Amino acid sequence: MKISQAHEDFLRKHKRKQLFIRFTRYMILIVFLALWEVAARTGIIDPFITSSPSGIVSTIVRLWREDNLLMHIGVTMYETCMGFILGTAIGTFIAVLMWWSDTLCKILDPYLVVLNALPKIALGPLLIVWIGSGTESIIVMALLISLVVTIMTVLSGFVEENSQKKLLMDTLGATKLQLFFYAVLPSAVPTIVSALKLSVGMSWVGVIVGEYLVSKAGLGYLIVYGGQVFKLDLVMASIVILCILAALMYYAVAAMEVALRKWRTK
User: Fold this and answer.
1) Are residues 143 and 129 in the same domain?
2) pLDDT at 1 over 60
3) Which residue segment(s) compose the domain that 94 sits in?
């Protein structure tokens, strides 16, 4: 099919805009790192307090050579993935139950509001006593932080769904199970993916908070240890690695969103 000249101009303009956005995005990061490095080397800022990009890189290389880096990354990734998977699965299941039963939804709603407002870190000492000072308590902390957000986000997607397909099935006497699987759930996929994106960040927060409290390994442990012994290069290196891992996990969920969107359009 022949494309019109106006359409070609639009596509060309859109492509140039996307290239400009990517270029600007990377240039901001490069300029920031360059200014940070120059300021540290010239003494404008104290590299002992603020560290520097070269110091962070050398710290990461040292941890890699000491065979400690992969171990700490593995511990944190395992805890985060378990908290994310459990929080998403349990939260979605509870949201389905609350959509299914309006009575249950009204009963649990005030408790969800209170739990969402409660600072989860306050439960840390209790989790240590109840579960122990190990990986399990960190996973539970990540689960608790992501659980309520997942429930409320997914439930809002179920409740607000009011498509023509749902109305037609309801008129034709479809069962609630049929209504859910053929109308509500497919239409709520974008909301569920949004909940997954939120849950990714919440899971990382929960794991790092848990590692602050009880961990003997992991990136959160490195941050705490580096702060205690004033090795701020170690603190900054751990934060940089955390940012990279969190971004990779977020983009994995975003890639899944693209795949689901293509599947829905088939």
Assistant:
1) yes
2) no
3) 49-265
